């Protein structure tokens, strides 16, 4: 019955998560195609809610990013940076751009802070920070406030016990530690400070709203800690040495693939039974 799957609001949640991940002014067909991939391919072809192996919103995002790289990299400039422009787009103008009834306005699009930092090869990180208006106090200009809003929402969900702290906190701690190990503010090859990696891109959005997906993540407490930590490490590795500066979606999908393996080796011992001896055979 279709009504049951409509009333559980999981499709709406997937659409909202993917919508947040898409660039502003994304054309309507891009959104429609991404939602179709997320709901039909990543979710219902596996059996529907509770049976999907991969996070549907991240599958839709990755398919769009690989298939339509131009449309997926036209990010809108924050209002503070374009303050000298005549005006920002109104709601009606935004709809016109989204539905293709007017041409896109290049003056309002720019590279993300992670893109700018990744492409830098000559300036010291401090000089780059002062020269590029896209950087704010801790992360990207404008992105910092969005990151704080995601963190506030995540803390609220933690207080409401919608999920546990193990996966998101372990992810943020792992990303902080590994980025601190490679941080050098006097080098042009520096990967950026830990605060930059936390408050730029989709780090906090991914930590509290993607990594915590109960269907595609690890189940046990130890498993969630390992799962989150591995995502944090993969995010940094892909950001610095990969081709995609944000990397949240790719890291999550890779660990979705590993979640059953993690659960197999971290499942708690049943009361009254000894710990299983994996990799050994019981002889008569």
Structure notes:
It is built from 14 helices and two strands; from the N terminus they run αααααβαβαααααααα. With 284 residues, it is mainly α. The chain has a two-stranded antiparallel ribbon. The model has no long low-confidence stretch (mean pLDDT 82).
Low-confidence stretches: none
Largest sheet: 2 strands, antiparallel
Q: Taking all residues together, what is the mean pLDDT?
A: 82
**Cα distance, first to last residue?**
50 Å
CA gyration radius, whole angstroms: 21 Å
| Helix/sheet category | mainly alpha
Number of helices: 14
Write the element-wise H/E pattern from the N-terminal end onward.
HHHHHEHEHHHHHHHH
Instruction: Order the strands across the largest sheet as they lie in space.
Output: 1-2
Helical content stands at 40-55%
Shape: globular
Strand content: under 5%
Number of strands: 2
Summarize the structure.
With 284 residues, the protein is mainly α. It contains 14 helices and two strands.
Give a quick set of tags describing it.
mainly alpha, 1% strand, single chain, 55% helix, 284 residues
Question: What order do the helices and strands come in, and which of them pair?
Answer:
Layout: H1 2-7, H2 10-21, H3 28-41, H4 56-67, H5 69-72, E1 75-76, H6 91-98, E2 109-110, H7 113-119, H8 125-131, H9 143-159, H10 166-181, H11 194-198, H12 203-209, H13 221-241, H14 248-266
Helix pairs in contact: 2-3, 2-4, 3-4, 4-14, 9-12, 10-12, 10-13, 13-14
């Amino acid at each position: 019955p279709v009504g049951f799957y409509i009333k559980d609001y999981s499709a709406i949640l997937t659409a909202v998560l993917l919508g947040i991940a898409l660039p502003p002014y994304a054309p309507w067909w891009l959104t429609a195609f991404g939602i179709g991939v997320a709901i039909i391919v990543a979710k219902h072809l596996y059996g529907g809610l509770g049976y999907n192996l991969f996070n549907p919103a991240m599958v839709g995002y990755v398919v769009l990013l690989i298939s339509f790289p131009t449309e997926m990299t036209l990010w809108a400039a924050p209002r503070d940076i374009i303050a000298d422009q005549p005006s920002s787009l109104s709601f009606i103008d935004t709809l016109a751009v989204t539905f293709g009834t007017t041409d896109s306005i290049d003056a309002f699009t720019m590279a993300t802070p992670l893109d700018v930092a990744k492409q830098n090869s000559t300036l010291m990180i401090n000089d780059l920070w002062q020269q590029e208006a896209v950087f704010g106090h801790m992360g990207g200009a404008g992105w910092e406030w969005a990151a704080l809003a995601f963190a506030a929402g995540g803390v609220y969900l933690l207080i409401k016990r919608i999920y546990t702290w193990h996966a998101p906190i372990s992810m943020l701690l792992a990303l902080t530690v590994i980025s601190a190990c490679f941080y050098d503010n006097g080098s042009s090859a520096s990967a950026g400070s830990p605060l930059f990696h936390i408050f730029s891109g989709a780090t906090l959005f991914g930590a509290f709203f993607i990594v915590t997906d109960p269907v595609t993540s690890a189940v046990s407490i130890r498993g969630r800690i390992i799962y989150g930590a591995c995502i944090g490490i993969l995010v940094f590795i892909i950001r610095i040495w990969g081709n995609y500066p944000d990397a949240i979606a790719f890291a999550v999908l890779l660990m979705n693939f590993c979640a059953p393996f993690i659960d197999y080796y971290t499942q708690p011992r049943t009361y009254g039974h000894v710990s299983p001896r994996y990799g050994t055979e019981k002889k008569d």
